[in-house]
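Lecture 7 notes: from sequence to structure.

We start with a single chain of 96 residues. Read the sequence below before looking at the structure.
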Amino acid sequence: MLLPQGKQQTSAKPLTRVIIDKDLNFYAGFGNEKEQPLQLAELTTFLQACADKEPEMYVALYADESVPYREIVRILNIANENHFKMVLATRPPEEK
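Now the structure, written as tokens:
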């Protein structure tokens, strides 16, 4: 997966990960669990179950840089509606 570049990097480890690959497949994982495929319609239930386990959790969204912005906004809307803290995963800028 090729993440977009970003200067702002965080060192904190996300507890929950949502991944959108270049083919628009969705995956999610909590803690040290391996990410599992899921449908977008299942994401809210998955994230709520994670929040029940860890109320202070936050979600890291890993989206391939080719993923349309509308797909990212759909995930951000789910997070916002459910008051989940979210960060967007990026890769560091390349050295020039």
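The domain at 16-88 is CATH 3.30.420.270 (Nucleotidyltransferase; domain 5). Keep this in mind for problem set 3.
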